[in-house]
Amino acid sequence: MADKFAIITGASTGIGFELATLAAKDGYDLLIVADEMLIVAAADDLRAHGAQVDAVEADLSTTAGVDRLLAAAKGRRIDLLCANAGKGLGHGFLDQSVADWRHVIDTNITGTLYLLQKVLKDMVARDSGKILVTGSIAGFIPGSFQAVYNGTKAFVDNFTDALRNEIKDAKGVTLTTLMPGPVETEFFDRADMNDTSVGADPKKSNPVDVAQDGWDALMDGKASVVSGWKNKIQQAMANVTPAAILAEQHRKMAEPGSATPEALAKAERADH
């Protein structure tokens, strides 16, 4: 058993899996979680780095799912939490079912806040611990045809800024917000956005690079990090661009059917 213990959510694939890989290489024991059985295979892969890894399949959109995750920690001190679990949802808001948009809100906001509150209380009490929360530059942009998701990330980005100030007297506790742009993960497939311009774009960020940016910022105790120079520019422009223009720009990226045949063909070639 290592003397460092980390919990990483949404760790079956993508950014979460890459964060778990970095933690394993850095000598952490891991408790990883996702809402799919693939988390078991991810745990097997991570053990190849010599880490002790436990996996839990749980729905973190519910307080019961978060409680199940924390129970699996068996009372062990949590030194590091990567709150990375999230859900996307494409298409127009009026076309989305209540169950679907509520699941996005409950996963990205409610479950994340409940987990943070549970873990941070102990960290602040002992004045020790690190947390990385995956936000997004989407939180700076009105997300036409992805409105609920972008709205949840706006909440997360804003909330972590506020929470960071609330716990500033706990000098041994750091809270870092990772804000990537579009990343080459299963996100767009699961959000039914493969026929959109952003979904078909073969130049999305590599999750390995995004995770490394987040990890470096976390270890340096930084407040936040925007991953990728193009996303840094986009964030800066969002601060001075009228919301109506941003919404129209996002529409061109996320409206169903916005991907050109050429872009779809290029994305298909990139997959192979």
Automatic annotation (TrEMBL):
Gene3D superfamilies: NAD(P)-binding Rossmann-like Domain
One Pfam family matching this protein: adh_short
Top-rank lineage group of the source organism: Bacteria
Keywords: Oxidoreductase
Region called Disordered, residue ranges: 252-272
Single GO MF descriptor: oxidoreductase activity
CDD domains according to UniProt: SDR_c
InterPro entries with a match to the protein in the record: NAD(P)-bd_dom_sf, Sc_DH/Rdtase_CS, SDR_fam
Keyword Oxidoreductase assigned: yes
Protein family: Belongs to the short-chain dehydrogenases/reductases (SDR) family.
Protein name: SDR family NAD(P)-dependent oxidoreductase
